[in-house]
Automatic annotation (TrEMBL), chain A:
Name this polypeptide is given: APOP1 protein
Compartments reported by the entry: Mitochondrion inner membrane
Source organism (scientific name): Formicarius rufipectus
PANTHER family: APOPTOGENIC PROTEIN 1, MITOCHONDRIAL, CYTOCHROME C OXIDASE ASSEMBLY FACTOR 8
Source organism phylogeny: Eukaryota, Metazoa, Chordata, Craniata, Vertebrata
This protein's encoding gene: Apopt1
Family: Belongs to the COA8 family.
TrEMBL record, chain B:
GO biological process terms on file: cytochrome complex assembly; heme A biosynthetic process
HAMAP family the record matches: CyoE_CtaB
Lineage, broadest ranks: Eukaryota, Metazoa, Chordata, Craniata, Vertebrata
Full protein name: Protoheme IX farnesyltransferase, mitochondrial
Xref: Gene3D superfamilies: UbiA prenyltransferase
Residue ranges crossing the lipid bilayer per the database entry: 243-262, 347-375, 395-414
Keywords recorded for this protein, A-Z: Heme biosynthesis, Membrane, Mitochondrion, Transferase, Transit peptide, Transmembrane, Transmembrane helix
Annotated source species: Formicarius rufipectus
GO cellular component: mitochondrial membrane
Length: 147, 441
């Protein structure tokens, strides 16, 4: 993002996590509250990125392994004569999806709790920052009117 | 520094961006009409055909909707895909050159020439955008945040409930109830999106939502939700009647605090979501009559039962996304149950249609005329149960899209005339007795 910009910038979705990274603008006169907010957002972003990148990678990997093992059991190769990647039909994949979901249930529960907490904290901090800024602006306005 | 690493590694999107197409709003006509449902079907079909992996299960405050926007895991039932025409890149060029320092390289793989459908906004999606709220974009953003099309459908089912109530039509009450329901639905949908940002990012269907794209801050989303919920519920409670207000508030709570988290905890979320979908027509009825009688429960029951063939069929094709996203849905964990429940509720619709005249809501023409469509959806439900494949699930799903509007329309045309006072009092006398003895699924 341009150096003179005063706002945050959001980018395209990450290849692994599908989340959009945000670059936070650090204003020179950042208050303690604003810094807390920014750090909370950065932390949440990093945490989310880590979780989803790892999770999606695991999904893709396990899916490949599953397909490979199934194809081998059927006596087929990963690629057929034309060089196309062989796939299993939806019903066979369904077994994998069910398995994967059940296996990762605990992980998701933990992540959900974490995410909800972070989300609420960040939004609450945003509210506080907005309020602080509004009060500051009102005070500035009052000062300008008086002069 | 962590961000730099991502930027260097992942330069582009994995999937092709969704297409946006501009559709005109059918917001004027609140009652279910043929034009309305054709519009819905056209919109949904175009959308579904484009990307089969996208679930069109719109999220609804009440989960009623002829459309299904399946977000995979969310039981979003209405699809509110807004498609806009291919717009020229309105990011200034200097920004692109500045991006060079971030080393964002658009790999040739990104320009998927083999992409099945034309990409509406390829470059826009891959650029870095300033996170500043633009006032001129705000209405569009809020519309998407509140899932305005889904909301419109929800309001139309509430209108159906209002229309079916055996009382003289009161326009002011009708408008207040519709507006209140609409606001409540907007609020619930916004909170839902607020909760689901990282999950939405990972699902094809939902990855272009405003919060996911950073077009609006979470604080604003919550603020908007609050500013819809408070006037909405107040309007219902004070302008219509307290019962409707209570139902509206309860539905918001059920959708945001029960259904949304439950999607990731247990398959029971589907049943909760079905209740969410069943409440708006009940609200319409209570808005008209001021009381919860058998007719309200029957209408709610019909909407409740309809949710199952609709959602279960849709979720059948989204199992991969659900599994990866961590959503607990019947189609993934209990596929047999999924199909059984869908069939069971198709048959329940038959039963409920027959009960309608018994309760004095409609004439006996209704079960007769609706028999063909109910039999057809039950047949498709049976095929889905037996075949358990993608084609049968799709057929069931598409059928559900036109089945509901048609059923409600037929119901309305077969409504028992209010003028027959003697008959009405007769039935009212028997009605409550019957209602007590009835157990709706």
């Amino acid at each position: 993002p341009p150096a003179h910009s005063h706002s945050d910038w959001i980018g395209p979705p990450d290849k692994h996590s599908n989340l959009r990274p945000v670059i936070f603008h650090v204003p020179p006169e950042e208050s303690a509250l604003e810094r807390r907010l920014r750090e909370a957002r950065q932390e949440a972003q990093a945490c989310n990125q880590r979780f989803w990148a790892r999770h999606n990678r695991a999904f893709r990997q396990e899916k490949e392994e599953f397909i490979y093992s199934r194809l081998k059991a059927k006596g087929l190769e990963m690629r057929d004569e034309t060089g196309q990647k062989a796939t299993l039909n939806a019903e066979e994949m369904a077994e994998f999806y069910k398995d994967f979901l059940n296996k990762n249930f605990r992980k998701h529960m933990q992540y959900n709790r974490d995410w909800y907490k972070r989300n609420f904290t960040i939004t609450f901090l945003m509210g506080q920052v907005a309020l602080a800024r509004a009060l500051r602006w009102l005070r500035w306005k009052k000062k300008n009117v008086e002069h | 520094t962590g961000f730099l690493v991502w930027r260097l590694k992942g330069a582009g999107t994995r999937h092709s961006p969704s297409h946006f197409v501009h559709l005109c709003r059918a917001a004027n006509d609140r009652l279910v009409t043929f034009q309305y449902f054709h519009f819905l079907k056209r919109m949904y079909v175009t959308q579904y055909n484009r990307d089969l992996s996208q679930r069109a299960k719109p999220k609804s405050d009440p989960v009623v909707s002829p459309f299904h926007e399946l977000q995979q895991l969310d039981q979003e039932k209405r699809v509110v895909h807004k498609i806009s025409p291919i717009s020229p890149i309105h990011q200034p060029w200097p920004e692109t050159s500045r991006r060079g320092e971030l080393r964002e390289v658009e790999s040739p793989a990104e320009t998927e020439a083999s992409a099945p459908s034309p990409r509406a906004e390829p470059s826009e999606d891959r650029q870095w955008k300033e996170m500043k709220l633009r006032l001129d974009e705000l209405p569009g953003i809020l519309a998407r945040l509140s899932k305005i099309k889904l909301t419109a459908l929800v309001v139309s089912t509430a209108s159906a409930g209002f229309a079916m109530a055996p009382v003289p039509f009161d326009l002011t009450c009708f408008l207040l109830a519709s507006l209140g329901t609409g606001l409540a639905s907007c609020a619930a949908n916004s909170i839902n999106q607020f909760f689901e940002v990282p999950f939405d990012s990972n699902m094809n269907r939902t990855k272009n939502r405003p919060l996911v794209r950073g077009q609006i801050s979470p604080l604003l989303a919550v603020g908007f939700a609050a500013s819809c919920a408070v006037p909405g519920i107040a309007l219902l409670a004070l302008g219509v009647n307290p019962l409707t207000g209570a139902l509206g508030a309860f539905n918001i709570f059920l959708y945001t605090c029960c259904y949304t988290p439950m999607k990731r905890i247990s398959i029971a979320n589907t049943w909760v979501g079905a209740v969410v979908g069943a409440i708006p027509p009940v609200m319409g009825w209570t808005a008209a009559t001021g009381s919860l009688d058998a007719g309200a429960l029957l209408l709610g029951g019909i909407l409740y039962s309809w949710q199952f063939p609709h959602f279960n069929a849709l979720s059948w094709g989204l199992r991969e996304d659900y599994s990866r996203g961590g959503y607990c849905m019947m189609s993934v964990t209990h596929p047999g149950l999924c199909r059984r429940v869908a069939l069971r509720h198709c048959l329940a619709l038959l039963g409920l249609s027959t009960v309608a005249p018994v309760l004095g809501i409609t004439t006996w023409t209704f079960p007769v005329v609706s028999l063909p469509i109910n039999l057809y959806i039950s047949y498709l439900g049976f095929r889905f149960y037996r075949d358990a494949d993608r084609s049968s699930s799709r057929r069931l799903f598409f059928c559900s899209l036109w089945h509901l509007p048609m059923l409600l329309l037929v119901m309305f045309t077969c409504k028992k005339p209010v003028l027959e006072k003697e008959d009405k009092s007769d039935l009212l006398g028997e009605g409550p007795g019957r209602a007590v003895g009835m157990r709706l699924p």
